[in-house]
Amino acid sequence: MKAIILKPGKHGEVVDIDLSYNNLRSLVGGNIEMTYPFEDEYLAVISNEEAKLLDLPPNRAARRSDGSIADIYCGTMVVVALAPEADYRDLTDEEENLVMKMWGPLEGKDDWGGAKPNMDFHIYAGDDALAFFMGGMR
């Protein structure tokens, strides 16, 4: 399937990969976690569930609709497209462009204005293009 791999310190890369569970675990280096930071898009980010606990390198910022940083993903990220029946499908050209515009270029500490990965954030789909739970606050 056509997906995008985002590795820390590297430009985003559109690839054709096997989206089996074991391959995804191999790509992110451990147990997978799926988050949904794109409102109104059938897109998911697959990353290592324990990336912050394992102190994996920071990767890309997850931003709110106003541009402020909600959190920073750590470790390798795989962006995939979801079919309505909860299966994977190829990214469309439009989805590919959306993700590459947002996350294709390199990001680093200088781009984050002092923001650091937050252990209390859990990204999920929401009303504000990126919504989050923080310590029980909704």
Please give a structural write-up.
This protein has 138 residues and is α+β, with helices and mostly antiparallel strands. Helices cover 14% and strands 34% of the residues. It has helices at 21-28, 93-103, and strands at 2-6, 13-16, 32-35, 43-48, 58-63, 69-74, 77-82, 88-89, 121-124, 131-134. The strands form three sheets. Strands 1, 2, 3, 4, 7 and 8 form a six-stranded antiparallel sheet that branches. A two-stranded antiparallel ribbon has the order 5-6. A two-stranded antiparallel ribbon has the order 9-10. Strand 9 and strand 10 form a beta hairpin. The protein is globular, with a radius of gyration of 14 Å.
Summarize the structure in short.
The protein is an alpha+beta fold and 138 residues long. The protein contains two helices and ten strands; from the N terminus they run ββαββββββαββ.
Question: Layout of SSEs?
Answer:
Elements: E1 2-6, E2 13-16, H1 21-28, E3 32-35, E4 43-48, E5 58-63, E6 69-74, E7 77-82, E8 88-89, H2 93-103, E9 121-124, E10 131-134
Antiparallel strand pairs: 1-2, 1-7, 3-4, 4-7, 5-6, 7-8, 9-10
Provide key terms for this protein.
alpha+beta, 2 helices, 138 residues
User: Approximately how much beta-strand content do the residues carry?
Assistant: 25-35%
What class do helices, strands and sheet pairing give?
A: alpha+beta
Poorly predicted regions: 124-138
Major β-sheet profile: 6 strands, antiparallel
| Overall body shape | globular
Distance between the termini: 35 Å
Radius of gyration: 14 Å
